[in-house]
# Entry
Amino acid sequence: MARILKTDGMKKCIGCFTCMLVCSGLNRQNHSISKSAIRIKTSGGLSGKFVANACIACTGERACAESCPTGALDPRPGGGVILDSKKCISCRKCAKACIVGAVYFDELQNTPIICKHCGACARYCPHECLRMEEVSDDI
Amino acid sequence: MIYEDYIKVLYIDLSSRKIRIDHRKDLTEYLGGVGVASKLLEENLKGDLDAFDETQPIVFAIGPLTYIFPVVTKTVAMFKSPLTGELGESYAGGRLALTMLHAGYDAVVITGKADRPCYISISKTDIDIKDARALWQISSDDVGRIIRERETGEGKRSIIRIGPGGENLVRFASVCVDTYRHFGRLGLGAVFGSKNLKAISIIGDRDMPIKDFKSYFKVYNDIYKRATDTGIMSKYHDSGTPINVEPLNLTGGLPTRNLQAGSFEHADSISGEAFAEKNLVRKMACTGCPVGCIHIGQLRKAFGEGYEYESMNVGYDYELIFALGSYLGVKSSDDILELIERVENKGIDAMSTGVALGWATEAFAKKLITEKQTIVALEFGNTANYVKAIEFLADRENEFYRMLGEGAYRASEVYGGQDFALTFGRNEMPGYHTGYGSVVGFAVSARHSHLCNAGYSFDQTAKEFDKEKLVDSLFSEEKERCLLNSLVICLFARKIYDRKTFTEALASVGRNYTDEELDDMADRIYRTKIRIKKACGFSQTDIKLPRRLFETKSMTGMLDETTAYELIGMFNKKVEELMDKP
# Structure
């Protein structure tokens, strides 16, 4: 069974940013929150709600993969995509194609930041905002 | 700077509008945070000049573990305090520390005075001093919103700002950090005001590769587990700091009605549980803290016929509940939230405000002042009048409120009642009347705060009263906290960050220290702070304790004035020995 990230508990978010710290650290060996594949933002200042922007694991047609001219993004079983950075030419078409704005770009490495649905962010979330869900393989 | 052998300091001079960036290798001897900020304050301070003199510096600093380890979330601000006239030191959480780290500065020093109201915008590629004329006299809440809409960097940004209280130079004005946190104490807001500085916005998103991921993440994991799985931090998340109301009240350590009593008959309706059940709508965290102690209460107020309500979300904590609650005889959580909201909007320190109003209320009852001065009758429990008084105070409505804005000490010099103006070195008291530990602790601590040496905690945990033990505990805690505050951890996590833990954390990011080196560093930092106090003309031997402390029974019984001064003398001797050390 494949697993995908679900961000449906965000109403409980306390805004600690641990998910971003852990994602940047584990996946990109970087302390910067700008390297994270999940982004926590506030809507309307701190008195507003916290929202999470992360890959929603599209199944079937994946717009980011479709937009990639070099085939660097392959469908990931269960949802989302897998990046083959050797094929990536840094055109950023995937970032533009993602309608939920969940494909970020690493300006220094010149590659998109693609969520692997590894579950690290959910594992470290202290307030039950993020979770992993088992899904069947759509491919 | 993380992974570098220097401390990166950004200097901004508002008079000349010039900036400078220094890489200071020598400052690494001061670890970070309060150590570095003390040194920078000492270098830039004019001890003999007024706190509002335009040459006086404001220093902000973060530490070597900031954000990258759990609960290392604070920024320290240092300045000459307009309230006490000596060492000003204040801490705030929120996002400020994260953004300083990611903007690439360990410390920021601001001097000079802008020729017109301004705000500073700092990002990794720019520093700008911008026009804020139209923002003057606008509440800190609205200013946050306006700057948020003007500046980029959503989610990676911190906006710190003052309200009218700071602009009007109320000597205990605060600086609001990201809506729910503050540099509350000792008047940093007024120093901002004196510089025509309304706000600072910092955006940080620089690249920071991890040098040794394996060792870093091993220590991170260990600390994360202890912060979230063990019970060490749960009290801060569950009820939050207001959990203190009940035990302090039961044992007689909750300052009530201007410390005429140590317990409050309505404590049940202002306890942590009462707030949680009636008002709590949300908990929040400073960035990098998986605990989340920020408790937001909702206040619903009717403003017209036909079910017309306005609602406000207000952050609450123990110290605010004490100062604007029991200390003023205010007996409901709704009323306290209303007073907090008013204090927030005006941008003044809740603790000093409550304690100053407590003095004024008793002075009013004793007819030292009359309604001609106070405009409204000041009576314990009269929330509606306190709301007005807070506005008069922040707006410096008349001569009396102008004096009250100078602090309870100065106001009582003019109007009388110094015996019941509860200040330590001119700083209004914190919410603990627990015994010699609290009284002596507040008196001798570098910034006259309960957080410097935890004397109140000694009172609550010591099995027996022993003068030597108390003084030793205050002295060693004061020094150890120089290290914790140089890392700028949140002190709620002090039980997690013992020496062994933070030494490992430092080593995992390439900074290796022996115990002896850390001891030396603590001495060096504490000595710097004492030198700053002396340079400002402060003498610990001149400290005067208000009589009321010895008239109202504390948690550990009646206190004797002579003993308190004896203990202060014993502490002073230790300080002198430290200062005489080569």
In short: Chain B has a mean pLDDT of 96.
